[in-house]
Amino acid sequence: MSGPAGEVPAAQPVAGLEAAGVPTVRPVPPATVGRLPGYLRALTELSVLGVRTTSSERLAALAGVGSAQLRRDLSWLGSHGVRGVGYDVRRLRGRVADALGVESDLAVVIVGIGRLGHALADYLRAEGGGFRVAALVDTDPGVVGSAVAGLAVEDDKDLEDVVRREGAVLAVLATPVQAAQRVCDRLVSAGVRGILAFTPARLAVPDGVTVRAADVAAELQILAFHTRGTPA
Amino acid sequence: MSGPAGEVPAAQPVAGLEAAGVPTVRPVPPATVGRLPGYLRALTELSVLGVRTTSSERLAALAGVGSAQLRRDLSWLGSHGVRGVGYDVRRLRGRVADALGVESDLAVVIVGIGRLGHALADYLRAEGGGFRVAALVDTDPGVVGSAVAGLAVEDDKDLEDVVRREGAVLAVLATPVQAAQRVCDRLVSAGVRGILAFTPARLAVPDGVTVRAADVAAELQILAFHTRGTPA
DNA sequence: AGTTGTGAATCGATTCACAGCC
DNA sequence: GGCTGTGAATCGATTCACAACT
């Protein structure tokens, strides 16, 4: 048994003006969105390898899903494979990146530059994945001003300015739990629309803002569930 | 819009000897398992607050789900609420922890003590969550032997011995990508049954072993999807 | 009166299997 | 001959709404 993690909270219902003859894009189902990053990675690998064309069978194997599911998922993007041939790797990669909204590197602000924030900054600078680490923010006067991952850490009191300056819509929250909700509120008020929180607490956000919790303890608990039953 | 992350790969089908009069436990659905950690946290909060009894309504609000869903989820655990009254917080907390398999603190080994591994070690030591950080392992001679989170970092070459010594069935993998699959294989051969991987690559594991990927780039990509459409 | 546990209904996601196209 | 895109079938998960119980 195995399997990657990832789930998406809610669908984005699209105004139903289909009747008016406007060809509305059908909303991509949450479960599909959760798999798109896997497809993107697989396609990037193939692309690097110099592969020009791939079948749904091969791509699905790389991404760890069934080929029928892959084809169904791609059909939501209005994809253009060629029957009898397969998909053009480069074109499809572009299509998936576009659907996710990571064509042009999006600005991400990381708040809380402890060991975890530092590690995440390094990782995102190196791996990329379609993002630009635009700024790092912390409260600690001993950290503010120091260089981390090639950026000068900025002062928490300027958080809103930093977010606006960089036009960041995404943020990574790596502060202690106590500060999380306050920082979250300020991020949202400054225009952030998506927050990846490494905090165990549930964060309250207004509609239109998405929070994803990266909760290590919860992940381990789920793993613990699966290791039950076969005690060795 | 908001929502925590978390999904569970596959169900554990139970041998169907119901006909023989044996009261088999019905398998808990994956979606339910994914929500149990949230319930556990909410129940722990209530318990700390000194609350003895709670309704499904209140508990569901704390966990961020609907009350009907909460009741349905708990019904898989054969839970014993009292009609007209609610659930006994302490008892229910025990029941959920038990279902997850985290009643007695499980041993966890962390491999790769870079900044990320160090941060995770600190976090798991502090937050607990039903686990005992049993050992830290790294290859770097400059790190091996140093004290991190109150433990001496051990040498990677002793990985298998360490896992067996501690009887660890869970591991956290925080090594560079290149080493991930090799370390994974060794963990599995030493008896580890669940791996939380902070590596973007898909890991191949035999049946009976569960991998959950904590992929920061993928999470951000999913967030990016939700921020599309409303360019603010 | 208040709340649970659960059938029945609904909704969404996955899989099958094949017509349609290259 | 091979492979995609998708209707139809299946499977699972969520929600409704109420009977059963304290």
UniProtKB/TrEMBL annotation, chains A, B:
<keyword id="KW-0520">NAD</keyword>
<comment type="subunit">
    <text>Homodimer.</text>
</comment>
<feature type="DNA-binding region" description="H-T-H motif">
    <location>
        <begin position="38"/>
        <end position="77"/>
    </location>
</feature>
<protein>
    <recommendedName>
        <fullName>Redox-sensing transcriptional repressor Rex</fullName>
    </recommendedName>
</protein>
<keyword id="KW-0678">Repressor</keyword>
<dbReference type="InterPro" id="IPR036388">
    <property type="entry name" value="WH-like_DNA-bd_sf"/>
</dbReference>
<dbReference type="InterPro" id="IPR036390">
    <property type="entry name" value="WH_DNA-bd_sf"/>
</dbReference>
<dbReference type="InterPro" id="IPR009718">
    <property type="entry name" value="Rex_DNA-bd_C_dom"/>
</dbReference>
<dbReference type="InterPro" id="IPR036291">
    <property type="entry name" value="NAD(P)-bd_dom_sf"/>
</dbReference>
<feature type="binding site">
    <location>
        <begin position="112"/>
        <end position="117"/>
    </location>
    <ligand>
        <name>NAD(+)</name>
    </ligand>
</feature>
<keyword id="KW-0805">Transcription regulation</keyword>
<keyword id="KW-0804">Transcription</keyword>
<dbReference type="Pfam" id="PF02629">
    <property type="entry name" value="CoA_binding"/>
</dbReference>
<comment type="similarity">
    <text>Belongs to the transcriptional regulatory Rex family.</text>
</comment>
<feature type="domain" description="CoA-binding">
    <location>
        <begin position="101"/>
        <end position="202"/>
    </location>
</feature>
<dbReference type="InterPro" id="IPR022876">
    <property type="entry name" value="Tscrpt_rep_Rex"/>
</dbReference>
<dbReference type="Pfam" id="PF06971">
    <property type="entry name" value="Put_DNA-bind_N"/>
</dbReference>
<keyword id="KW-0238">DNA-binding</keyword>
<dbReference type="InterPro" id="IPR003781">
    <property type="entry name" value="CoA-bd"/>
</dbReference>
<keyword id="KW-0963">Cytoplasm</keyword>
<comment type="function">
    <text>Modulates transcription in response to changes in cellular NADH/NAD(+) redox state.</text>
</comment>
